[in-house]
Amino acid sequence: MHHLIRIFMKTNYKILLVSLSIILILSSCVTRKNLSYLQYLAGQDNSGMQVSNTRTSVTPSAYKIMSYDNLFIRVITPDPQWSVLFNTTPVGQGGALTEESAGLLGYTVDGEGFIEIPFVGKLQVSGKTLSEIKVQLETTFEKYLNDAAITVRLINNYVTIIGEVNLPGRYLLTKDRLNIFETLAMAGDMSLYSNRQKVQLIRESPYGPMVKEFSLRDRDILTSEFYYVMPNDIIYAQPMRGKGFQNNASVFTLFLSAITTSLVIIGFFR
Description:
The protein is α+β, with helices and mostly antiparallel strands. It has helices spanning 2-27, 32-35, 80-86, 102-105, 130-141, 180-186, 242-247, 249-269; strands spanning 70-76, 107-108, 114-117, 121-124, 149-154, 158-163, 169-172, 194-203, 210-214, 234-239.
């Protein structure tokens, strides 16, 4: 009878050990499905069936200037003496354009949406695109100069990528039509434990920051207004549950080893 009890106890120990191992393995498992982009359309199951949905393309909106943006404005005329009057630095001596030098090289939009240009005065620029501001400046400078060539650029033209990406940081937007996938590629793509089902984008608006949460596994992102990123966007890649296990893998391993050792010792003396 005592021998049967020992066999029963050892069997239960083995079942317990196997169960703990399976739970730990499953909690840390990241499947191909979790890592894939654009798997299905909204309203479909995850198998990708019923692909007859009607889809429309999305046209990216041009960024509209807001208060506290920094603008680089360069006025070039046939007579360099006139150019110097309207430029913050002499033509040909600008160097690299960075936010650190924005105070010297650019014009900061004030809280009411104005910039102030020497000898011209204040101009309302908030709510306008760079192209519209260029036309506005050309019209304004016609009163002072003939054949002036005007360049307008946004200095704070960056996007911030944080969370579960391989290279989080702040990146310069090198073109206007940069989509969410191209942006994540600059950060080395999303990490193994990034939740592609729940990505957050924080975007500034005249009424304050707004937050949009979307799935990169859903093809509907291709027609979303958030498919193309804007200057000053913040992209947050949230971690999956398995990330917690990864961070505490050594603790779980030590815990499992302790349980295993204890059960072996108890089984030996019974």
